[in-house]
Amino acid sequence: MDHVLTLLSFGKEGWGDEIAAGTLLTIALALATLPLGLLQGFLLALAKNSDDSNLQRAADIYTTIFRGLPELMTLFLIYYGVQIGLQAFIGLFVEGVYIEINSFLAGMVALGVVFSSYSSEVFLSAFRGISQGQYEGGYALGLSSYQTMRLVILPQLIRLALPGLSNLWLVLLKDTALVSVIGLSDLLRMSGVAARVSKEAFLFFGLACLIYLVLSMISSAGLARIDAWARKGDTR
Amino acid sequence: MSLGSAAAEAPPAPVKTARPWTFTRIAGYALMGFWIAMGLGLVAFLVSSFDPEFMAKYGAKFIKGLIVTIELVGLSVVLGALVSLPVAMGRLSSNKIIGRIAYSYVYFFRGTPLLAQVFLFYYGAGSFRPFLQDIGLWWLLRDAWGCALLTFTLNTSAYQAEILAGAIRNVPAGQIEAGKTLGLKRGVIFFRIVLPQALITALRPYGNEVILMLKGSAIVSIVTVFDLMGETRRIYSRTYDFQAYLWAAMLYIILVEGLRRVWDKLEARLTRHLKR
């Protein structure tokens, strides 16, 4: 027991501080990805909801590609692909430049792309839940289409999309574990390092699983509060 | 002027107006242009870097990896369906303790990343080696493929149990009451009345779960299982040829999209009696 406590302590002998840092990185990555994925997903939903067939098709192609690829594949394609592509492009002008992409940024973009392809479907079905009369009501009051979107549609859209988006947030939190593969020191990677050095694999991976569980419990509690806030206008 | 001639006179043709260049129209052309350019770029890259030697050497490897992926996902989904039955029963049980245990099982597997679970089982098993050898399970956990199969089976069983339990709960109580009124036994009511209706509603989530497993299965490449992703990573590390990833990505998209469409057709066919 003492042995375990030493291993988990903060400080030189223990791995507590490393794992805490990894946890913070996991949370930071998920939080940084969220606005990106939400905005991109919202724009995609607008495109799918528009009356221009080209725009709809372009958005559908995006969704098909990034929902069809394994998340790990998306991550590799972005991490290695962009690196190789940029290198080839800059190589046209300057010889012998080596480019390395920040793995946090690559992880953020890859997870954001995956998140947005799912969230666009959530937003789209939320759009379908809002009746045409709401738009017409907005226009009848003399609001511009931007004002109608912001003041009339968006507040209702958030309420309708919230359950789906909550699920996607929990999925995103779990998907961050994949970035450990491209060398980012997140929770899973730090646990892996601790496990390899201390030879206590079950302890550290078990701990990592517990921390992920706690993170998703905290998220669920937070999301329930946001949901209650979004629903406070409901009369039923 | 008679009434007939007025009716025969055609209304004037609408004046043709050019469609205005709105923002959405320009954006639509721009984005479709972007995808067409990307598609052409991909084809150009694959054609220019096409190498008969690469294909002869590694083409069969991709197929081998694909078969490993399909085997792993197929087996774990089927075995997971079996394991999910008692778990779903536990979720629906009126006994509080059994309910709690089943809920904890589901919560653990759904609340943690699949990759962390694979690591926990694969590397963590070493901590219990003497015990596992005693109960004769060491052979399964020693091998990366067996370990991945075990983790995937347990993981998907938690998701499938939740799908099944939710679907059974959604069967209207009147159906069960009607069965009781007819004097049917509990087993008959469950298997002939409740389960068929539950499976119909569970069809779509089941399809999504298979697709999620198919995509999730790529992570086994990290614990040295040579599935499609694993073979791709091995080929890339030998050749540094990026087309390896592109071919694999296309295979994955074809597989997932194909499965999704087949499942949609299947669902439409099986639920055609519910369409109004």
Structural description of this entry:
The complex is a heterodimer of chains A (about 240) and B (about 280). Chain A has about 240 residues and is mainly alpha-helical. Chain A has helices spanning about 1-10, 15-50, 55-70, 70-90, 105-130, 130-140, 145-175, 185-200, 200-230. Chain A has one domain (about 15-230): MetI-like (MetI-like fold, Orthogonal Bundle), CATH 1.10.3720. In chain A, helix 2 (about 15-50) runs antiparallel to helix 3 and helix 5 (about 105-130) packs across helix 7 (about 145-175). The longest helix of chain A has about 35 residues, at about 15-50. Chain B has about 280 residues and is mainly α. Chain B has a single domain, classed as MetI-like (MetI-like fold, Orthogonal Bundle). Chain B: Belongs to the binding-protein-dependent transport system permease family. HisMQ subfamily. Chain B: Its main location: membrane.
Q: Could you name the CATH class of chain A?
A: Mainly Alpha
CATH architecture of chain A: Orthogonal Bundle
Could you give the order of the helices and strands of chain A?
HHHHHHHHH
CATH superfamily of chain B: MetI-like
* Total tally of structural domains of chain A: 1
Shape of chain B: flat
CATH level 4 superfamily of chain A? MetI-like
Strand portion of chain A, in percent? under 5%
Model regions low in confidence, pLDDT < 50 over at least 5 residues of chain A = none
**Shape descriptor of chain A:** flat
Secondary structure: number of strands of chain A: 0
- In total, the number of domains of chain B comes to 1
Rg estimate of chain B, integer Å: 27 Å
InterPro entries (chain B): AA_ABC_transptr_permease_3TM, ArtM/GltK/GlnP/TcyL/YhdX-like, MetI-like, MetI-like_sf
Pfam family, one (chain B): BPD_transp_1
Keywords (chain B): Cell inner membrane, Cell membrane, Membrane, Transmembrane, Transmembrane helix, Transport
Domain ABC transmembrane type-1 (chain B): 66-263
